Amino acid sequence: MCGVTARAPRTLRKTAAACIAVVLFVGMLPAPATQAADVSLDVSARDALGRTWKRTDKPVAAGKITRTWMWGPALTGVVSEPAQDAPGGMRDVQYFDKSRMEVSSDPRANPGNIWFITNGLLAREMVTGRIQLGPDTFEARSPAGINIAGDPDDPNGATYASFAGHLADAAASDGATITRRISRDGKLSDDPALAAFGVTAAYRVQAPGLDHQVANVFWRFMTTAGLVYEDGLYRTEPLFENPFYAT
Q: Does residue 170 fall inside a structural domain?
């Protein structure tokens, strides 16, 4: 993922999964104690945000398990951003090293439901340059010329903007070996040597406006179990209550 090109996803969700995978497979070191303290302080600002963060990241911060962060250290406190469908036209969000948490803008939403807090469509906004301010309202920006994986100063790596022209690409066949690459300028190529890694199309997602595959390496992680923190206790449960929750 960190070379001149990156393996090309078929749709945005695989793009988002690629972002997650960078840390999932190379960030398996224990978290420093000072970092853990900073995160816990920030996420306590809102119960729902804090509960979501603690479920998977508190075991890492507490040194109970060695695995990647799901959300990572907090980059901001809880802040309000425009959302036309939210009460008062604003909703609470918080930015973390690996994602953005958003509080549901629906005043009828149940705070106990996992979808009350989501990571929103940050990756889509960065790929398309369209920032969503309401159900049908967008602010036009340019796609982000930020490297999607690898070293941030790599002049050859694919950026979020590289994927802008591929959101509607056809899905791979079930079980197909994934050997495609994408260059910084968005061009696709086939690299048969990648077949040696055994990455295949493992789970097809079809819904209105969506038709794409999830690679097997991502699907295994999305459906794995591990140590979580719930209701004041550490226990072994699926890391994701729904496999697509944090994608």
A: yes
